[in-house]
Amino acid sequence: MTFSRSQGFLTEAQRKSLLQFPEDIPKAQLIQHFTLTEADFNIIPKRSPAYSKVGFVLSLCALRFLGFIPELFDPLPDYVLQFLLKQLSMEEIRGFARNSKSKLES
To answer: Model pTM?
Structure first.
């Protein structure tokens, strides 16, 4: 079987699934990749607004989990965000948009 360059190795759906968070993250992987360490807390920007801290932490955990920082944080399971917020001692986050790593909700 041969593939032409235009045909590609992966389908669009396969490529998309590799470039974003999965819809479900098993508990063991959640704990392994999304538990913040003392070193993580030491590098979280102290004077940044809460939404920026969440974005930073999510980028850090995405790097551990996916091996890169995705363009979009969606679909990010809500329980992952809640797991991170709890560690940051935050109940909710205003101004954090999952659809872009750098844009605020309007």
So the answer is: 0.76
Q: Domain range spanning residue 36?
A: 23-87
CA-CA distances (angstroms) from residue 96 to 1, 55, 62? 46, 7, 16
Two tokens at 93?
């986050």
Total structural domains in the chain? Answer: 1
106 assigned to some structural domain: no
CA separation for the pair 103, 91 (Å, rounded): 21
CB atoms within 10 A of CB 51: 16
Q: Is residue 103 part of a domain?
A: no
Q: Kindly report, residue by residue over 68-100, the tens digit of the pLDDT.
A: 998 878 888 999 999 999 999 998 776 666 654
Give residue 14's identity as a one-letter amino acid code. Q
